[in-house]
Amino acid sequence: MINSTINPFSSKEGDIAIEIPESAASATDPLILVISCGNEAVNFTLR
Fold first, then answer.
1. What secondary structure letter does DSSP report for 29?
2. Secondary structure in 3-state letters for 14-43
3. Alpha-carbon torsion 39, 18, 30, 22, what sign?
């Protein structure tokens, strides 16, 4: 998905790698990824 474009009403699949500190990786607290654009946001619960 590097250097690719997604047109409106279409989709693509792939993997996104995110590096996090060891303290966050080993914690038991909820881990939520938030992707936002303008006033819109999508939350993904990772843990």
1. S
2. CCCCCCCCHHHHHCCCCCEEEEEECCEEEE
3. negative
Check: CB of residue 34 under 8 Å from CB of residue 41: yes
Where do we find the tokens 């250097």?
3
Cα–Cα distance, 45 to 34 (Å, whole number): 9
Structural tokens at position 15: 């993997």
45: tokens are 């619960």
pLDDT digits (tens, 9 = 90+) for 11-47: 888 888 889 999 999 999 999 999 999 999 999 999 9
Phi, psi (deg, nearest 5) at residue 38: 65, -125
